[in-house]
Every structure is written in C-alpha cells, then in structure tokens.
C-alpha cells in the first residue's frame, strides 16, 4: 500500500488509519476526518504533493483491509522447533554459540556465560549473518554508473561494494555472464582493469538509503 501510494516504505499513517478502523477507540466516521485534518496540518509545509500522498495512503489502507482467519486453537499450541544454521566450520565459535541462536529466535535460551565479558560483540561478526531480510534490493545499472562509489560509501551494511577485475578474472569460467562491467577509470593504476558495483542481497536490509 505504501509503495502504491508513493510513500516508499513509510507506513506510520497507514497503520494509524488501520488502528482507527479496527480498534474502535473513536467512531470511525468521527476519527477519520480528524485524522485527515491532522495530516494536512502536519505536512502542509512539505508541499501539496506530500499531503496528497499521505491522504491517498490512508484511503488505500482502508480499501485494502482483508480479514484473515487465524486457527487460534492450533496456533496456541504451536511449538518453536530448533533450527540449525548451515555452517562451513570456518566461522568463530561466537557465531555458532551466540549469534546463530539469536538469529533463529532462540536467544532467550542463552546463559550469561555464553557472552563475552562485558557483553562485547567481537568485530567482524556481520559477515556471518546472511539473513536475507530485505523486501527489495538495489540493482546496479552499469550503463549509468559513473564510478563515484557514493552508493558504496553510504551503505550502512557494506552491501554495495566496488570491484576491479583483470581480463584473466573476467575470462574465468567461474565468472557469470551476468557480471556486467565497464572499463575502470582512475589513471594508470586502473589501466586495463574492469569496474563493477556489486550488491549482496543476503546482507541487504532494504533500508533504501542508496
């Protein structure tokens, strides 16, 4: 609903509208005009287009409400099963003993002694957390890329990274056909090398900062 209304991933007013529709804190017919007036007052300084998108998102949220029947009896008895994260054996013990349990929602079973003294998390642990939680990931258009590397610099999770490849590496049978590059710029040091911006979907959180 947010994306269709031009709101990107911003859902605060959408969820507020749904709350008024379902909670009954105020009669819906009374609450919505007040809410829409509050939206106009809050966002009027940002321009008419911002106000329009927020009002459209609220309207679309109500139009897209669908009831889902939840089998409460069976869900109430649902048990969490242990889930093993496949590992190669190269990862630190902290990853296996602590992070994997947290990522599989078993963190409440950890004892205090499982953590480092002072609760410190060792550096470099995010490289082992391939969560794949993003609903949308960046796709690089190498035809438009200017090799400024700003997308890599701004990415808070190190998902987007620039690479230089030699002709030998590009000719390798391990290089996929979809690995599109362009001649690298940057003087003599980059002469003869190919440039590419590569994103890692499993590391991306979908923050859309890029």
UniProtKB/TrEMBL annotation:
GO terms for biological process: response to oxidative stress. The keyword rRNA-binding does not apply. Gene3D superfamilies: 3.30.70.20, Pyruvate-ferredoxin oxidoreductase, PFOR, domain III, Pyruvate-flavodoxin oxidoreductase, EKR domain. Keywords: Oxidoreductase. It comes from the Eukaryota. Residues 136-165 form the 4Fe-4S ferredoxin-type domain. This is 4Fe-4S ferredoxin-type domain-containing protein. One of its GO terms (molecular function) is oxidoreductase activity, acting on the aldehyde or oxo group of donors. PROSITE patterns: 4FE4S_FER_1 (PS00198), 4FE4S_FER_2 (PS51379). SMART domains: EKR. The keyword Oxidoreductase applies. Pfam families: EKR, Fer4_6. It comes from Perkinsus olseni (Perkinsus atlanticus). The lineage of its organism: Eukaryota, Sar, Alveolata, Perkinsozoa, Perkinsea.
């Amino acid at each position: 609903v947010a994306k269709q209304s031009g709101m990107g991933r911003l859902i605060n007013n959408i969820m507020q509208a749904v709350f008024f529709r379902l909670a009954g804190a105020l009669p819906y017919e009374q609450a919505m005009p007040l809410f829409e007036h509050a939206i106009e007052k809050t966002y009027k300084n940002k321009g008419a287009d911002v106000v329009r998108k927020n009002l459209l998102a609220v309207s679309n949220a109500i139009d897209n409400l669908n009831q889902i029947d939840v089998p409460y009896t069976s869900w109430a008895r649902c048990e969490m099963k242990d889930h093993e994260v496949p590992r190669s054996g190269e990862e630190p013990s902290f990853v296996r003993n602590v992070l994997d349990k947290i990522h599989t929602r078993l963190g409440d079973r950890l004892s205090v002694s499982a953590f480092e003294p002072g609760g410190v998390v060792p550096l470099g642990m995010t490289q082992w957390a391939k969560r794949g939680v993003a609903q949308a990931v960046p796709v690089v258009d190498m035809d438009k890329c200017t090799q400024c590397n700003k997308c890599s610099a701004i990415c808070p999770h190190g998902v987007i990274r620039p690479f230089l490849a030699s002709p030998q590496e590009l000719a390798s049978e391990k290089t996929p056909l979809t690995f599109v590059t362009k001649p690298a710029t940057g003087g003599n040091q980059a002469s003869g090398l190919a440039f590419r911006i590569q994103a890692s979907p499993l590391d991306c959180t979908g923050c859309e900062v890029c």
